[in-house]
Specification:
alpha/beta, Elongation Factor Tu (Ef-tu), domain 3, Rossmann fold, Ubiquitin-like (UB roll), 3 domains, 6-stranded antiparallel β-sheet, 7 helices, 18 strands, 18% helix, binds flavin-adenine dinucleotide
Length: 358
Amino acid sequence: MTAAPPPTFHPLEVTDVEELTDESVAVTFDVPAALQDLFTFVPGQHVTVRAEIDGHDVRRSYSISCPPGEGRLRVGIKRVPRGLFSTFATTELAPGAVLEVMPPVGEFVLPTDLRDKHIAAIVAGSGITPVMSMINSGLRLDETCRFTLMYGNRTSMSVMFLEELEDLKDRFRHRFHLMHILSREPQPVDLFTGRIDSEKLERILSSLVDPRDVDEWYLCGPYGLIETARKTLELHGVGNGSIHDELFFAGDAPPVPVVAEDEAQEGSVHIGFTLGGRRSTVGTEPDQTLLEAAMRVRQGLPFSCKGGMCATCKARLVDGEVEMAKNYALVAEEVAAGYILTCQSHPTTDTVEIDFDV
Ligand SMILES: Cc1cc2nc3c(=O)[nH]c(=O)nc-3n(C[C@H](O)[C@H](O)[C@H](O)COP(=O)(O)OP(=O)(O)OC[C@H]3O[C@@H](n4cnc5c(N)ncnc54)[C@H](O)[C@@H]3O)c2cc1C
């Protein structure tokens, strides 16, 4: 059997950079005909984008915000304070630029069967991006499905995709229920003013959105929002299986040094890994992650966030055991099938064998 090629970057041209708010942009990439199949995506998936910024190789994950089938990719990027990539994207990036982009991945996706489904999303800030794609395609694909969106922002000026959401609300009036919840701008309805905390969610779930009427829940944004929403939904009897989340930011990950392509055997633990059909070995210590160890001997390892959130560094554990410090990306079925996030996995046996190609 031929090994699947490892996920690689492809140069894509930026065709549009649209200012969404003072601190966010929608960046559109052209996908040439030859790459259309590779860049096919399901609403909710994300891509890893790479650019050289101030001499650094910077890679970040961005969710696709447009519906599939348009022959293009659009991502929404919101600037974070002192953020390397997001500052570059929102202040310097212009049409004509070419960035390296990896094909779409991710399990935070719409169900394939939308018939009679009521889908609800609780998101904040840039967490709208994957849900934008879901709403845009779901409402068009199946006229029996409904969406409810609870969208938190500071003020109306900081709402990404505001006009597009209003258009969707007008066009699909009976199937799209949109709630803006603004933390720093008083709204006519008190319930929609303030942060999305457990008390506010509790009130919304008791008065406006009956959780028993919702089939699938999608949570996206910072850690606090996802945890609060998940706990409140569980208190309302929503089962874990119908809650999906995508975490954009969990904390800093240490930088990983890259050394020459070679074998390195020193260390008490012996790691073997296959990437692109080629096996390499490296000796390491348990305090190093498998990704850190592998990067010492091979270039081209797939990774992006290094925080357990994006799953770009996913591999299958073939032999040995590991402990995953964090996992915000793999679903239970993947973990049961032996998949691990190599950026978070530390070896707990003397030998470990992993495969990035499956
Ligand atoms: C699966 C996935 C999908 C994502 N999709 C999107 C998307 O669609 N749109 C989008 O704007 N972002 C998205 N992100 C976040 C994005 O990948 C970057 O983390 C973000 O743009 C910041 O990168 P940066 O280089 O500007 O900041 P960095 O230079 O990495 O960090 C600068 C400082 O900001 C802090 N920081 C980093 N990221 C965040 C954050 N998200 N919130 C608050 N503080 C932060 C860091 O700790 C550091 O102190 C996604 C992340 C994941 C894992």
